[in-house]
Amino acid sequence: MAAISSLDDASKKWPKGAHAAVALTLDNMGEAADIQRKLWPESQPIGAHYSVTRVLPQILSLLRKYDVLVTYFIEAWNLRVYGDVIAGQVATAGHEIGWHAWQHETWSKLTDKEEQDNFARSFGKDGIGGFVGPGARGTDKVEKYRGFRPPGGLIHGTRTLDLCREYGLRYLSPAANEAAVIPSKDSGDSITILPFKWATVDAYYYMETFAALRETKEEYTSEPQPPYVLVQSFKKEVDLAIKRNGYISLLFHPFLTDRPERLEAMESVLKYLAQKRDEGVIWLAKNKEIDEWVRGQPHMFSSDPQWDLVQWR
What we know:
Layout: E1 20-27, H1 32-36, H2 50-65, E2 71-74, H3 78-81, H4 83-90, E3 96-99, H5 112-123, H6 128-131, E4 147-148, H7 158-166, E5 171-172, E6 180-182, E7 191-193, H8 202-206, H9 211-217, H10 227-244, E8 247-252, H11 260-278, E9 282-284, H12 287-296
Parallel strand pairs: 1-2, 1-8, 1-9, 2-3, 4-5, 5-7
Antiparallel strand pairs: 6-7
Helix pairs in contact: 10-11
């Protein structure tokens, strides 16, 4: 099952009369996660990761081919390392830059202070605050973060939501089942939930480390799945979103799209999305656009996203 929000009244359509809203998203850039997990060799220089130098250009080329814009959730650490790529190749092509923690820290494992420090560093002069300030290289190219996808998919409830509001974030993309609008009891600032589900995440199919989650979900064996299984599942979930007049987020990682067969799988999904978009069946949009639309009709969405709280690592 994918991240789907159903609209009970069939007469209520998404923009342009579409029957579903679809967000294609990317997660993770470069060696940030490996460094944070102490898996990156100290003797190996940073700033030339294959996922950025070889894979990302191929993905961007495919996105241009099918005229698709994405939301790319990138660790703030990367602004210092791959700032020219983020500003000059990703943002200038029209893609949205979302926040994916400082250095891909597993969000559910952060203490209260660690969470506050992660926000402060990511939004401060070492992060987006210094990247889009006066005279900075991201100015007029990259917007301040509007959305946050927590690595690992889990958050710390109202603690995280309050920090999101404090730092001006408008939407959150965690592991959950339904798009939702969560109002604030104090400030009046709502947070839109535009969730993902593991069934529409490439890592769920490809990575050995997701064996436990595959077993927990009881959808596949613990063994990694081939690309054609991903394609079949992604298409099925898009069709279900169309049937339910709902919302769905699809998620790819550039570092996992390093093999020809996986790049071909991504193109198969892109081609399917472009076809449905051109037929007027889906609204294929960036998360920030979907957030704006949802905020315009909050009565159509619950305040309960039905969080997916499965612990698998």
